[in-house]
């Protein structure tokens, strides 16, 4: 079993729809949780990070963490064509500066 | 110059050859990490350098090696290239501190193709 599981299936939605992405993890030592966005031919860029269970909002983006279920989610409201990219979840253990990534979800927002 | 820069952007090598990839850290960052991202996969941690010393290594064989220089720039060397080494190699710089997690900045990567 991989440490971080992210169903890599592509996701195609119409403009304005809500995009819902999620990851599960097996190691309870993970304490910091991130979502990265990666455009084609570019490196990942940090969208959001959090270290506690609950919700965190930043504009149209909401990250949720449920440590008891080892489950994290990212929601994108009012999706735009510019949101079309691959979204990667990532996690870090306390005191360890290496990221463990999921496989990523390719999201396409259709105008 | 801000941001993380990597060179070259693309590279084609023959199986068995050696390759060196380069990375310039973001200004003020003292830690460099290297990741391998195969097509359709998430990045996999190769190793990290802090103060010119290796500071953690992922599940990669010894033919993957690296260096960090006093200006915090870094190199990734891969010997005896195999076809499976074809991937996007990402460099990330960061601050080695509890507040450094949101400083983790990736370059655009080097696309290595082994034929």
Spell out the blueprint of helices and strands.
The complex is a heterodimer of chains A (111) and B (115).
Chain A (H helix, E strand, L loop, with lengths): L3 E2 L5 E4 L4 E7 L4 E9 L6 E6 L3 E5 L2 E6 L4 E6 L8 E9 L6 E2 L3 E6 L1
Parallel strand pairs in A: 2-11
Antiparallel strand pairs in A: 1-3, 3-8, 4-5, 4-9, 6-7, 7-8, 9-10, 9-11
Chain B lengths: L4 E3 L2 E4 L5 E6 L6 E7 L6 E7 L2 E5 L6 E5 L5 E5 L8 E8 L10 E2 L3 E5 L1
Parallel strand pairs in B: 2-11
Antiparallel strand pairs in B: 1-3, 3-8, 4-5, 4-9, 5-6, 7-8, 9-10, 9-11
Overview of this protein structure:
- The complex is a heterodimer of chains A (111) and B (115).
- Chain A has 111 residues and is mainly beta.
- Chain A has strands at residues 4-5, 11-14, 19-25, 30-38, 45-50, 54-58, 61-66, 71-76, 85-93, 100-101, 105-110.
- In chain A, strands 2, 4, 5, 9, 10 and 11 form a six-stranded mixed sheet that branches. In chain A, strands 1-3-8-7-6 form a five-stranded antiparallel sheet, with no helix packed on it.
- The radius of gyration of chain A is 13 Å and the shape is globular.
- The model of chain A has no long low-confidence stretch (mean pLDDT 92).
- Chain B has 115 residues and is mainly beta.
- Chain B has no helices and eleven strands.
- Chain B has strands spanning 5-7, 10-13, 19-24, 31-37, 44-50, 53-57, 64-68, 74-78, 87-94, 105-106, 110-114.
- In chain B, strands 2, 4, 5, 6, 9, 10 and 11 form a seven-stranded mixed sheet that branches.
- In chain B, a hairpin with a 5-residue loop joins strand 7 and strand 8.
- The N and C termini of chain B lie far apart (34 Å).
- The model of chain B has no long low-confidence stretch (mean pLDDT 91).
- The interface between A and B is medium-sized, with 24 and 27 residues.
């Amino acid at each position: 079993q991989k440490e971080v599981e992210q169903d890599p299936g592509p996701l195609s939605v119409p403009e304005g729809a809500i995009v819902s992405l999620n990851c599960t993890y097996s190691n309870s030592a993970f304490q910091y949780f991130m979502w990265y966005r990666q455009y084609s031919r570019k490196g990942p860029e940090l969208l959001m990070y959090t270290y506690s269970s609950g919700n965190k909002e930043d504009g149209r983006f909401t990250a949720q963490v449920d440590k008891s279920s080892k489950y994290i989610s990212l929601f994108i409201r009012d999706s735009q064509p510019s949101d079309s990219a691959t979204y990667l979840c990532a996690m870090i253990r306390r005191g360890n500066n290496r990221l463990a990534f999921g496989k990523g979800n390719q999201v396409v927002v259709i105008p | 110059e801000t941001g993380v820069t990597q060179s070259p952007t693309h590279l084609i090598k023959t199986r068995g050859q050696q390759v060196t990839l380069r990375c310039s850290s973001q200004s003020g960052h003292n830690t460099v990490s290297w990741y391998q991202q195969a097509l359709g996969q998430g990045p996999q941690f190769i190793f990290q350098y802090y103060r010119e010393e290796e500071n953690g290594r992922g599940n990669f064989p010894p033919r993957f090696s690296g260096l960090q220089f006093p200006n915090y720039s870094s190199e990734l060397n891969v010997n005896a290239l195999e076809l499976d080494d074809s991937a996007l190699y990402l460099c990330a710089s960061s601050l080695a501190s509890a507040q450094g997690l949101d400083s983790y900045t990736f370059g655009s990567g080097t696309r290595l193709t082994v034929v």
